[in-house]
Amino acid sequence: MEERQLIEECKRGDSRARKTLYELHASAMMSLCQRYVCNLDTARDLMHDGFVKLFTKIHTYSGLGSFNGWMRRIFVTTALEHLRRNRIRQYGAETKDPEFEEQDPELSLFEHLSADDLFACIARLPEKYRIVFNMHAIEEYTHVEIAQALEISENTVRSQYARARQMLQRMVTKIWNTNK
Length: 180
Prior knowledge:
Blueprint: H1 3-11, H2 15-36, H3 40-57, H4 67-86, H5 107-111, H6 115-124, H7 127-138, H8 143-150, H9 154-178
Helix pairs in contact: 1-2, 2-3, 2-4, 3-4, 7-9, 8-9
């Protein structure tokens, strides 16, 4: 079934279409949720909450732009709302630290790393860095959008993103040196 037709049937409340849409996207949305919370049960709950929101709001999808992008935004927002509600860690302002100024990672190191290894490294980042890194590097939010979503300053976003990249670079270097 074509995606546009599937969406229209979901808008009409067709349960088979909803099930098909769920089955098509559940794996990707679970991966997205796991990037924001490391606990598998919590990620599963967020994925289900995201689908509930998606099916509740699907009538607002106008067909303009990517459905996948619209859907991903719902799931990212769901994860951020969960984190905000639970305030597991505060994001707080950070001071500039020259040791963590943004640098380009050695791309050759990343070429020798599997996607699973890279996602495992991302999962080991401190929560505030992991969230900012996911939003910017993977979900392609701008620094301004991240600052607004997390209710922190744009400079804090930039600092946390730079620190996340540097931490990832160290982890990747360590893995690469171990596998030589």
